[in-house]
Amino acid sequence: MSSPRVRKIADRIQVIVAEMLERRIKDPRLGFVTITDVRLTGDSQQATIFYTVLDSTGDDEAALAATAAALESAKGLLRSEVAKQLGMRHAPSLTFVADALPESARHLDEVLARARQQDEAVAAARGTAYAGEADPYKKPFETPRTSAPQEPPREAEDDELDDE
């Protein structure tokens, strides 16, 4: 969909199909359907319609299968309405695909929750005190200093080198 015309047609198809599903299609198998995206080929012959289903009963797979069957049976009516409202000679064929966006979002939420728990565990561990001293390394034994520092004795080799 590189051309602006194709993008406008795809946006219009999304609005038309959403309004049709809300107002005219009265199939009891149809759940709370949201049209998330429409992708149209460059020649405007194929339209892929992505949808999500909000299920209030908790049985996602059954609701998704029932909604897919209802959309497949209403495909002809939706295509004729799209052709009528767009005024196109050749209406694009419609293909309905369940959008994976909610599953991806749910997975990302789980990953972020796990990361947040690990961060909290690390922060809690950071506040704990270690067993033992703060500085575990041994210090060398220091002798008390006398009042005057002692000079190291001169070696005999240094004297011999000076004579030469």
UniProtKB/TrEMBL annotation:
Keywords: Cytoplasm, Ribosome biogenesis
InterPro entries found in the cross-reference section: KH_dom-like_a/b, RbfA, RbfA_dom_sf, Ribosome-bd_factorA_CS
Pfam families: RBFA
GO terms for cellular component: cytosol
Entry's localization field: Cytoplasm
Region (Disordered): 123-164
GO biological process: maturation of SSU-rRNA
Gene3D superfamilies (UniProt xref): 3.30.300.20
Oligomeric and partner information: Monomer. Binds 30S ribosomal subunits, but not 50S ribosomal subunits or 70S ribosomes.
Protein name from the UniProt record: Ribosome-binding factor A
Organism: Nocardioides soli
Source lineage: Bacteria, Bacillati, Actinomycetota, Actinomycetes, Propionibacteriales
